[in-house]
Specification:
Elements: H1 19-24, E1 29-33, E2 36-41, H2 45-54, E3 57-60, E4 66-70, H3 74-81, E5 94-96, E6 99-100, E7 106-108, E8 111-116, E9 119-123, H4 129-138, E10 145-147, E11 152-157, H5 161-169, E12 181-186, E13 189-194, E14 203-208, H6 214-225, E15 231-233, H7 237-242, H8 278-287, E16 291-298, E17 311-315, E18 318-329, E19 334-342, E20 355-360, E21 363-370, H9 380-383
Parallel strand pairs: 3-15
Antiparallel strand pairs: 1-2, 3-11, 4-9, 4-10, 5-8, 6-7, 8-9, 11-14, 12-13, 13-14, 16-19, 16-21, 17-18, 17-20, 18-19, 20-21
Length: 384
């Protein structure tokens, strides 16, 4: 392989421990996420999708930065940040959680990992939660330490990922349950391995705890995966929209509340603990939402790529919402999308079968509300 080319805008945008490896293995385009480069292009995105759903891909997701919370009061502090009951999360378990502000707006939707009774990682979507957590801690009266550790995850995703993991770690890795974690030392490479991922396929995340060994870990995984058809890849927009998985800053932001997103299951609204945003969310729960996220099928020819701006949604000539994420699914042979619809005084606008006009840069199209997720709604593939 040729030497990596120079790429970047300066040292203020960080590169992951796998950056040079991804260049060697064909990454041609990057975007910035959590102040770091993330590979977005290893060739045709549809081929990347098929590699994911048929075989296995390795993705550099070191941009999922960790907020590490430790100290005697770490568990008490984490419970103030999240809306799920922490007492139901055992050591060695992971949970999908929401962090909300005082108004009930979503600040982040991370995976929380519980490494010990008072040792947590919050594995972030794209927002500055490290600063938020440190700010909340200042006047909390709790004894906690909050920092960003030297931890950089990779995602190994796809139906053959289990085979690759067994080649790396032995047969006992097959016993690792969905949303649980385990500590490993892989030939001197310190790791936390979890049965999680941003694909809704069978998959694992490998959290490297020594950034100096990034290149070594990447090559070791690629070598182990060669017999199973492994390919370098990137998080698939096609697959995540099929699964109804949300992208922060696209499908939600600080002005979006969990009830608009249908994430009621992540809010323990009547629990006997307090968390930031609880009072606001209780009021929203009582009063009802003014917007609601829906799934759409959009008519017309297959989209090329995904939307790069929000598209307007109209009903009877009136703007009533926006398309937040849209893409063509080659498996479903449909243009599919997530959208936010204004339902104040008109709850029927989110009903299955409702039709809208989508205002796209290249013209208008008809959109119909459908059930979401669009594929494998019970996540049988990921939990298999």
């Amino acid at each position: 392989m040729s030497a990596p080319k120079e790429f970047g805008f300066g040292t203020q945008i960080r590169k992951s421990p796998y950056f040079d490896a991804t260049i060697r293995w064909g990454a041609t385009d990057f975007s910035v996420y959590n102040h770091m480069y993330i590979p977005r292009d290893f060739g045709n995105p549809q081929q990347n999708f098929w590699n994911l759903v048929n075989d296995v891909i390795l993705c550099d997701v070191a941009v999922e930065r960790q907020v590490e919370i430790t100290g005697p009061d770490a568990a008490k502090f984490v419970q103030r940040l999240i809306s799920r009951d922490l007492s139901k999360c055992a050591v060695g378990q992971c949970k999908y959680v929401l962090l909300t502000n005082a108004a009930g707006g979503v600040l982040n939707d991370p995976i929380m990992l519980r490494l010990a009774q008072n040792h947590f990682w919050i594995s972030l979507a794209d927002s500055d939660i490290l600063f938020w957590a440190q700010g909340v801690a200042v006047h909390s009266g709790l004894d906690v330490h909050i920092a960003e550790p030297d931890v950089s995850p990779l995602q190994l995703q796809g139906p053959q990922s289990g085979q690759v993991m067994q080649a790396l770690f032995g047969d006992d890795i097959a016993d690792l349950k969905y949303y649980w974690l385990r500590e490993y030392d892989l030939d001197g490479i310190p790791l936390i391995v979890s049965r999680t991922g941003w694909s809704s396929e069978l998959g694992y995340e490998l959290y490297l705890r020594d950034g100096s060994k990034g290149d070594l870990l990447w090559e070791k995984i690629m070598a182990a995966g060669k017999p199973f058809g492994i390919k370098p890849g990137h998080t698939s927009t096609i697959r995540r929209i099929e699964a109804g998985m949300l992208s922060y800053h696209a499908d939600m932001d600080i002005h979006t509340n969990p009830y608009e997103l249908g994430l009621d299951r992540l809010i323990d609204i009547d629990a006997n603990f307090d968390f930031i945003g609880k009072a606001a969310l209780q009021k929203i729960h009582r009063d009802g939402v003014q917007r609601k996220q829906v799934g759409l099928v959009i008519s017309g020819e297959a989209m090329e790529g995904s939307n790069t701006r929000f598209w307007g949604l109209e009903k009877d000539g009136k703007l009533i919402g926006k398309v937040t994420s849209a893409v063509y699914s080659p498996r479903l042979e449909k243009n599919i999308a997530l959208a936010m619809v204004d339902v104040k005084g008109a709850a029927h606008l989110a009903d299955i079968g409702m039709e809208f006009v989508v205002i796209k840069p290249d013209g208008e199209a008809l959109a119909t509300v459908v059930e979401k997720p669009f594929f494998d709604p019970k996540k049988k593939l990921a939990a298999s």
